[in-house]
Amino acid sequence: MVVEMQLPNITPLEENVVCTKKQELLDLIYNAFSNSEFSGLFLKMFTKDEKEKYYVTVLLDRKKLLAAQIDLLNSKKKLIGSDSIETLKRIIDYPLVVDLYGLDEVSLKLSITDNLEIYNSTPKVELEKIFGENKIGSAEVLEKEKLLEKALERKKEETKAKPQVKIQEEVKKEVPPKKEEPLKKVPKIEKKPSATEIEIKVVGGEIFKPVLQEYAEEILKEIKSLDGVSVERVGITGEVGSGVIYLHVNIHGTSERDKGPREILERRVLYFVNKHLPIVWRKAGLKPILSNAQAKITAPGESEEEEEEKREVVIPRKVESNIIVEAHESVKPYFSTYARVIFKDIQSAGIDIEKMLLDVKGRSEHEINLMLWGKASGISKEEAEVVVNRILRNHAREIGRALKKYVTVHKVELYLEGEEVSSKAKEIMSKKEELEKEIEKLLKEAGVEELSYITEEKKKEAEEALLKNKVEPAMEDMRKRLQREFIGLPNSVFRWMNLDWEFKDGTVLVDLEASFDKRSALLGIVSDERVREDIMITLEKVIREVSAEHNIPIKLRNTEIRVR
């Protein structure tokens, strides 16, 4: 029986990297080995062809392959030993999805002992034999090649400068020799590493600013451990959502190394950005989602203009003349189609759209925000909000299933022009009041004051009877919605609730008693006030939605929230 290959509990250097050819995989391995801390690598790779799907796990050091196992997912077989090597050579040119783990000397030896059976059965093949003519050169070899290139360039410059030597010698005889001063002074270099500029911005929760400051300082500590890098600026922007925080990280530094090593340093910096994300989760109690991360290491004195070209900014994209979609490039095509569909559905619901902006936050999870400008015919703004929310949620579920991701509707903002219906309604109401006053005058003139009182009471009774028929279904709907929303709260565990209501003067007065536990992972981090605030925001949102959908005025009278 073949034992599964085991990996030490470490964070991957790279995840879900797509290598379309062998050379790209080779570059990925070389970039990892450029860090002197790593003695070995652990690779997980996935690929497929017409007949089979392959899941490959490989352990290697700087020179050779140590252990390999290939799972044939369709055939439900496992290959080790020489079979795994032959299959690996065959599929190495296929497009691969790769996860890469770096192993120091201790982790490498532990991995060998954990996978001893597979290690013993695997032939120790040199890496260059697997990758063919391509060789994994060490950093020393590359440095020697660069030195050779520089030496050749100097020789060319000397040969070009030879005809001018005689003229310069004649001039030098008359002018006394000057002492050459070194062009590069050490003090100037020492002035550069001044205090690093750390810029923290938080949208929707200034309380989390110290947490992001600590996160930035931890990243800085790691970067300072790298040789030849000085960090000039660290910018972190956090956008607080419901139970999550979307992070945009931008780091700029300088290094005197060549362009190739600087690119490797940039990858290391991005690795540190990912490595310390759990700090935000532990300290803030919010799930951190890295929306955008940029690391730029330039040569001293080099301008940062190139940075703007490479930066992965979410650029607004016009889908139609009146539809704009803001989303990450990887999911923008899906949400562009989504925007067209909801545009048509909203139009067919009686809302004439002039312009629509769909802002989609996140990568692994998505949060939808909609801004819409237009006119609503025959419905009020509140009713229009309910209609748009319902359309968005229905389609969000569909796209979530298609992408196999969690997609939620976060915010809907409608900017509707004054409807003609509302003005007509005002006219009708004013005429109604005038008629009632005339009827009261006629009754008083006729001496029938008691009759007006009776008719008023009858009118109230009729209104209350109508509303009561609508109230009970509305309250049942509210009860179910509150239970669903409370179960989904990120910082607490819902235990029970008691919802009472009273219909008085045409308004439903609601009393709520509920009990919650703070989540065990967040004890000591999230306060009782924060949990209560989340509950109250959810409660008020549900009351607004139910009130608008059922066209019943609902007010919150008493609440008792217990948190333990």
Number of strands: 18
Which value, in Å, is the CA radius of gyration? Answer: 34 Å
Overall pLDDT: 76
Tell the overall outline. Answer: elongated
- What is the helical fraction, as a range of percent? 40-55%
With strands numbered from the N-terminus, the spatial order across the biggest sheet is 1-6-2-3-4-5
CA(first)-CA(last) distance: 50 Å
Could you walk me through the main structural features you see in this protein, from its secondary elements to its overall organization?
The chain is α/β, with parallel strands linked by helices and 564 residues long. It contains 17 helices and 18 strands. Helix 9 (209-224) packs antiparallel against helix 11 (278-284), helix 13 runs antiparallel to helix 14 (381-403) and helix 16 packs across helix 17 (528-550). The longest helix is centred in the last third of the chain and has 39 residues, at 449-487. The radius of gyration is 34 Å and the shape is elongated.
What labels describe this entry?
single chain, 564 residues, five-stranded mixed beta sheet, 17 helices, elongated
Short structural summary:
The chain is of the alpha/beta class and 564 residues long. It is built from 17 helices and 18 strands.
How are the SSEs placed, and which strands pair?
Layout: E1 14-19, H1 22-33, E2 40-48, E3 53-61, E4 65-72, E5 77-80, H2 82-91, E6 96-103, H3 105-114, H4 116-121, H5 127-130, H6 139-161, H7 165-174, H8 186-191, E7 197-203, H9 209-224, E8 230-240, E9 244-254, H10 259-275, H11 278-284, E10 287-298, H12 305-310, E11 317-320, E12 323-326, H13 332-348, E13 351-361, E14 365-376, H14 381-403, E15 406-417, H15 420-445, H16 449-487, E16 492-504, E17 507-518, H17 528-550, E18 554-563
Parallel strand pairs: 7-8, 9-10, 12-13, 14-15, 17-18
Antiparallel strand pairs: 1-6, 2-3, 2-6, 3-4, 4-5, 8-9, 11-12, 13-14, 16-17
Helix pairs in contact: 9-11, 13-14, 16-17
